[in-house]
Amino acid sequence: MRAVHFGAGNIGRGFIGALLARSGYEVCFIDIDETLVEALNERRSYRVVRVGAAREEMQISNVRAINSRTDEECAVAAIAEADLVTTAVGANVLPLIAGLIAEGLRRRMRETDRPLNVVACENMIGAGSLLREQVYRHVTEAEKERFQRIFGFPNAVVDCIVPNQDGEDPLAVAVEPYHEWIVDQAGILGDPPAVKDMVCVKELTPYVERKLYTVNTGHAVTAYLGYARGISTIQEAIDEPSIREIVRKALDETGSLLVDKHGFDPGAHAAYIEQIIGRFQNPHISDDVTRVARSPIRKLGPKDRLVAPARQLIARGKRPENLALGIAAALAYDFDGDEEAVRLSQTVKRDGMDGALCKYAGLSREDELVRLVLEQADRLAALQKK
Ligand SMILES: NC(=O)c1ccc[n+]([C@@H]2O[C@H](COP(=O)([O-])OP(=O)(O)OC[C@H]3O[C@@H](n4cnc5c(N)ncnc54)[C@H](O)[C@@H]3O)[C@@H](O)[C@H]2O)c1
Ligand SMILES: O=P(O)(O)OC[C@@H](O)[C@@H](O)[C@H](O)[C@H](O)CO
Question: Name one GO biological process term (predicted).
Fold first, then answer.
């Protein structure tokens, strides 16, 4: 079995590629980072270490890589011959790889009608649907009809914290032991992919929202408040009692939405929240605040981890003050090594927090959420001074 995986980065090598290889696939990574591509082709294997209460080391073998910038033809051929295609490149990058995927699928279609699934594993609701839409921009109407019959783009949710790696080995990855990969059964064409630990479900929305509005909301609030306090890692930030209290309250807010909307058991959900806070505290991992805070414009988007749950809570008559504080902290995120943070802080300086929310979060100045965020600015300033 052959798998093509776009993105040989943290989660690509540390979780998805590792799981595919351990399930018996030959894994071909497609990336644009020449250092990673060269090292993968030279060694054909790399080390993944699960670090938690126990330590588990795995050697991942039967891997290779293609640089799609310099060797597009090879990338197209690899997609055409694959039994499964997956991605973890960042939601913003999906439109940039769609043309190449379309070309590979077109080539494959000339040889066979056997179904193939392309699973986008990005942190966003509906990443599979977005990728399908982007791929379809590169095909004709006649091709589209066949594409629809042969190629599945199921939505999926992936959860495993993989920090930036700072060891000498460019391929070795340290990951947390917790992992989850859930795929929407309805979007799969043909047989479900045979991947160890991958679960297919009939109704994905509760799982995606539970993960995005708990793990990623909590992570984002921790990162933006940590940055506001001059803290550099998630572990240090969550160990700060005032930050932990706000994160817990923000997760109680999203938790009330999730329980109400999807019928999760309140006790089980409270335990899920505690488990996640424990994952942020993992003392064996050092996760940079700037990794988790990255791309603040994406994270402030109307369908993303902060604004989407806050708006839904307001529509249900609630006042999500702690989420609003997290949003205020995101608006204050001005790390100069992050292109989106630079653009965001220029907008905030020019148009105010409310102007930035109108521009990036799809809100209007009269929105209750905008009022709530502006109200939290004093609380943020007090935290920054501590
Ligand atoms: N790291 C995590 O904890 C984690 C967990 C779950 C989901 N995710 C999601 O997975 C995705 C990747 O995250 P990451 O942390 O691994 O990021 P990363 O930056 O470590 O990896 C992304 C990789 O994609 C490559 N890439 C960028 N543009 C490309 C292109 N045009 N073609 C091919 N490759 C390209 C980069 O060179 C890099 O190697 C994101 O959507 C993220 O939200 C991450
Ligand atoms: O990848 P992002 O930028 O959407 O979010 C940053 C982190 O919250 C994220 O990568 C988590 O580590 C991951 O989603 C855990 O499963």
Answer: mannitol catabolic process
